[in-house]
Amino acid sequence: MEPILLYDTTLRDGTQGENINFTAEEKVKIARRLDDVGIHYIEGGWPGSNPRDKQFFELAKCLELKNARLTAFGSTRRPCISPSEDQNLTALLESDTPAVTIFGKTWDLHVEKVMENTLEENLLMIRESVSYLKENNREVIYDAEHFFDGYKENKDYALQTLTAAAEGGADFIVLCDTNGGTLPFDLESVIKEIALPVRFGIHTHNDSGLAVANSVMAVKAGATMVQGTVNGYGERCGNADLMSIIPILCMKMDCPCFSAENLRKLRKLCRFVSETANMIPLSNRPFVGKSAFAHKGGIHVSAIRKEPRAYEHIDPELIGNSRRVLVSDLSGRSNVEYKAKEMGIDLDANGFDSRKIVEKIKHLEAGGYQFDAADGSFRILLEKFTEQFKPLFELESFRVTVEKDKDRPCSSHATIKISVDGQNEITAAEGHGPVGALDNALRKALDNFFPGIDAMHLVDFKVRVIDGREGTASKVRVLIESRDKDHIWSTIGVSEDIIEASWQALADSFQYKLGFQSDPSNGNSVQKLFMHNSVC
Fold first, then answer.
1. Has residue 302 got a pLDDT over 90?
2. In this structure, are residues 58 and 68 in contact, taking their beta carbons and an 8 Å threshold?
3. Facing residues of 398 across strands?
4. Cβ contacts of residue 187 below 8 Å, gap of 6+?
5. Higher-scoring residue by pLDDT: 357, 139
6. Are the beta carbons of 336 and 314 closer than 8 angstroms?
7. DSSP string over 470-510
8. Which pTM was predicted?
9. pLDDT given for residue 339 in this prediction
10. What b-and-e string marks burial along 152-184, b requiring 16 or more CB atoms within 10 Å of the CB?
11. pLDDT tens digits, one per residue of 233-265
12. Which of 52, 193, 343, 425 is the most exposed place for a label (fewest CB within 10 A)?
């Protein structure tokens, strides 16, 4: 089988997704990561459309890529001018990339009603634009926009557009499901009906939730290039997600496109791009998501302890992920024992019965706790149940005030008194809201004992009313997600008072991050990290 080439368009098509923007410098960083994992083509943007993409290609001239060919994107020439007069094609050449991708209209609806062009002129635009770029020594990838919709409505004309691209000298013709409405069996049927004179690829959108399935079906039908984005970012419902396509091709279809070493980098790539885009990673994302190999039911956990493939379709470590066992009111002894072993906690050290621990956990969950979403708090709880918990700091008191007058927004102030190894520390801080003020005051206090605490920061904060029948006296659940450079962990608090619940989750987050031990020789505090696969 001919090797499959992976074409990433995160830096162009991905940025058309809602709330996703990258600076030129961020795009350079992402390009380096894409190259490092072994992507074959990196589409950097549309230099003829905006200054940011033009700036990126200027910066990219200093990039030394090991694996990827950088690609500039644009459209065919405008109607009724020569290619050399077209500013868009000129910008593509000035980008100085070894490959260029241009799209053209395949659907007669777009040609006649959207562009208000003639079918004949559109064919000339495709042929002449491709030919002009080839004359300038570029590898040319031609994207046949709306191909499948165009084929359904006017088969003959859609095929004429592909012939025009081939006659112009296109190295690849990419069939695009731009509206994302084609079904996999229809897509396969169309591809089998046509005969392309050059290698072809596939570009799909996810408007029907089928972008990955359609991409895989196209490969099965003979496509040798697959276009997509990291995490499926893209316009409307997104593009085909390379984080799913790559492991499917490599591990399910035996299609050579990625090394085993690079497969193990996928999860970190997923996290890096989502962090750069300031988007919360989807926990249930296939293969690379936090929940992709998470097990909650007691029967499931009992089975994977004996034979992991009983409930896992692949080994999670092959794509840089890890198995996670969750603990909740659905859990049995297997869940607790598995988690304890994973965290290095000896349940037998003080003669504790895992059955009793399970009952205590179920009682707490009945009261509003949710430990499957809070591994950090669960570890602390397990250590407390087995009398192995040594607090890093203890709260003596805190006071939070919120001030508002008619001309200014609310301001929050927190004063906190904690004890570390018998030494009291009192600090005060402001913040955006009462929890932010508490967080700042606690950091300020702990920094005197644990330098470097600023490496940790909160990334998510959720509040939920557990049962609203009591009105403002109802219990609330607070979930906090925190991270440092390499790790993410979650903690929880439950109370009728939202500030107290927030404090519980906040304190657990810091307790989890730091380990405390006394150095007998000098009495100084020493920081250590709890690092577990379960929170990566």
1. no
2. no
3. 416
4. 148, 177, 214, 217, 218, 221
5. 139
6. no
7. GGGGS-EEEEEEEE-SS-EEEEEEEESSHHHHHHHHHHHHH
8. 0.74
9. 75
10. eebeebbbbbbebbbebbbebbbbbbbebebeb
11. 999 999 999 999 999 999 999 998 999 999 999
12. 193
Strand partners, 167: none
Buried b vs exposed e over 209-238: b needs ≥16 C-beta within 10 Å?
ebbbbbbbbbbebebbbbbbbbbbbbbeeb
Site of tokens 């940025």: 15
Q: Which two tokens stand for residue 342?
A: 């994973």
CA angle in degrees (0–180, nearest 5) for 482-479-409: 85
Give strand ranges (E) for 90-216. 99-105, 139-145, 172-177, 199-204
What the block records as the tokens of 461 is: 């904060």
End-to-end Cα spacing for the chain: 36
Long-range CB contacts (within 8 A, 24+) of 251-259? 251/314, 251/318, 253/216, 253/219, 253/220, 254/1, 255/1, 255/3, 255/4, 255/219, 256/1, 256/3, 256/4, 257/3, 257/4, 257/5, 257/6, 257/40, 258/6, 258/37, 258/38, 259/38
Helices (H), 38-77: 51-60
Cα–Cα–Cα angle for 203, 215, 247, nearest 5°?
120
Q: How many Å apart are CA 289 and CA 271, to the nearest integer? A: 9
Q: Mean of the pLDDT values across residues 458-469?
A: 80
Token representation of residue 129: 């634009």
The number of beta carbons lying within 10 Å of the beta carbon of residue 47 is 26
Structure tokens at 217: 């079906």
Burial call 297-331: b when 16+ CB within 10 Å, e when fewer? bbebbbbbbeeeeeebebebeebbbbbbbbbbebb
Contact between residue 412 and residue 375 where contact means Cβ atoms under 8 Å apart: no
| Cα 265 from Cα 275, distance rounded (Å) | 15
Mean pLDDT over 37-42 rounds to: 98
pLDDT tens for each residue of 46-105:
998 889 999 999 999 999 999 999 999 999 999 999 999 999 999 999 999 999 999 999
> Is residue 272 classed exposed, middle or buried when 0-12, 13-18 and 19+ CB atoms within 10 A define those classes?
middle
How far apart CA 12 and CA 15 sit, in angstroms, is 5
- Domains of the chain listed by start with CATH number: 5-258 (3.20.20.70), 294-374 (no CATH), 394-535 (3.30.160.270)
Question: How far apart are the C-alpha atoms of 208 and 218, rounded to whole Å?
Answer: 16
- Closest by CA position to 467, among listed 494, 505, 445: 494
| Of the candidates 490, 398, 499, 382, the residue with the CA atom closest to the CA atom of residue 444 | 398
For residue 260, give Cα distances in angstroms to 89, 226, 263: 38, 19, 5
Q: Which residues contact 87 (CB under 8 A, 6 or more apart)?
A: 48
